[in-house]
Please model this.
Amino acid sequence: MILDRNLAKFIVFSEDSLHNALRKISDNKARIVFCVSSSGVLEGVLTDGDFRRWITEHPSFDTGISVLSVANKSFTFLPHDASHEEIGRQFSDRISYLPLLDRHNHLVAVAHRGAPEIRIGSFTIGPDSPSFLIAEIGNNHNGRLETAKRLIDEAIASGADCAKFQMRSMAHLYRNAGDANDASADLGAQYTLDLLSRFQLSSEHMFQAFDYCKEKGILPLCTPWDHDSLQQLEAYGMLAYKLASADLTNHDLLEAMARTGKPLICSTGMSSENEIVEAVKLLKRHNAPFVLLHCN
Model:
């Protein structure tokens, strides 16, 4: 089952012409469109079969009429937080595409059968797609924006699809607010905190690095290590997230990432099979689009 949040190919406005709706049905290969109001409320569904049935009753028609006048207004739908099992039970010979609505009846996703895949920007990740190549920049910029830009250039030259960074809030992530001089911390923690605090990009420089990625035609991606970083990345408009292997069992952060509705690339790291299963249950409970990385 696929939960598709890339809705542009499915949506027509209710006042659009039947001609435009039929063109979109032909283009999207799904044989269905969803008619929404200007505010995104789902008002009707038009399938290829709906149109065929309607045309037998209206042999003389004008394709300039509104699509809503033809669409089926008694459609099946589920809330956007329905479980995979609930969604699966709705599929039948008659229903292969199912709209998922929020509490205000806005269309937020379309569930349909098919090979599992996720979309990040213009990239599709799935069994029939090319490999998605991520250049891991992480903190190798050593806190310098110019170095980050040079690494982005090298990622592009290597043929990577994506340049990935890491973002952490020292104040929110560590109990001592990331104080490398904390006498109560052991020497290993002091050393690590000192490196992290000195070799981070500021939020402003991080966003400038993302903008540089877009300017140069490579997709930016980032790993948020804490809620504050996730909120900043959401405000920026990050298209997807990478989950660090250390956080696969951090269900509080994992749930917050799942609630964004963005595609998640999740490292399994040294997690046990049971820990991976529990993380997957959480992700499916929130209908999160995700892939797991088998890490060695």
Q: What stands out?
A: The longest strand covers residues 42-47. Residues 203-216 form the longest helix (14 residues).
